[in-house]
Each structure stands twice: as structure tokens, then as C-alpha cells.
Amino acid sequence: MGMSVTISAAAEQDAEQIFRLQYLCFQSEAALYGNYRIDPLVQTLDSVRAEVASDCVFVARLGDEVVGSVRGRVTEDGSAAIGKLCVHPRLQGHGIGARLLRAAEAALADDRGATSFRLHTGHRSEGNLRLYRKVGYQTVGTSEGADGVPMIVLEKPAGAYAATA
After folding, report:
1. Which of 40, 70, 94, 142 is deepest in the core (most CB within 10 A)?
2. Are the C-beta atoms of residues 102 and 165 closer than 8 Å to each other?
């Protein structure tokens, strides 16, 4: 009998697995842009540890293995910045990313008072854009990442997270 994937808040001891998973998952994004200096690939383990300690971080687990993660934090304007959503390549396409997003959105709205959610994804990242639009995000603009990658900015109101459940 197979194990099911569970979603839970990340713990301090998850930081190293999140770090390794992030490095694996964002290789395909880097290849899309021919840029292997994108933020998720150059982030340090200490920085991931700091985010796990201070931000709203959720993981997807298959047994003891972290197979997905997402991070969010409420910004000064009351919006929640959600980022670094990743799911192990062998498990993509099974709804784990949407489940991680829902968990983060619920915690950010209910526990941290977020009034809206905002995320960025690369302009060529069609799979990401499809997921975000499917769960209610709408394009509100563009920006350029610190790494020079053109990004699409998407948002949705905090009250909408329940509709994606």
C-alpha cells in the first residue's frame, strides 16, 4: 500500500531537505531562462533556516521525505508574499503544489492577517502560470527579478483562498 502525501508546517529540522529540494526543483526554471543564478539556486542553507524560523513555511511529506515546500510572509502593506513553491519533479502534476498554496494562504490569512496574496513567476513558466490562474490568481503586472529574469506578478484577495480548497 502506498503512502499519501501530507502537508504540514515546516520545522527547523526540515531546512536542509527544503534547501536540497529547492535546488533540485528550480533547475528546470534556470534552464528555461539560461540563468543558473536565479535566487532559489543561490540561496544559502542559513538563509533557508532563517526563513523556516521566521516565515510561514509549509512542506509536503511522503513518509519522512520532504517532497514539496512553499514560503510566505506578510509584508508592510498587509499583503502576503508567497514564494519558492516547489514539488519534487517525480510528484508534479498531482495537486501537491495547489495543496501547499492553500495551506500557506490559510495560515497567512487566518494566523497572520494577510489581506491579499502576491507571487511572482518567470514569464516563460507556463506550468506555474497555469497552476496560479487555476487557483484564482490574476496577473497584475510585471517586474524584473534581481537575477534579471522578467517576472509576472499575480495576486488574489485573501478571502478567495477558501474558494480554492
Report:
1. 70
2. yes
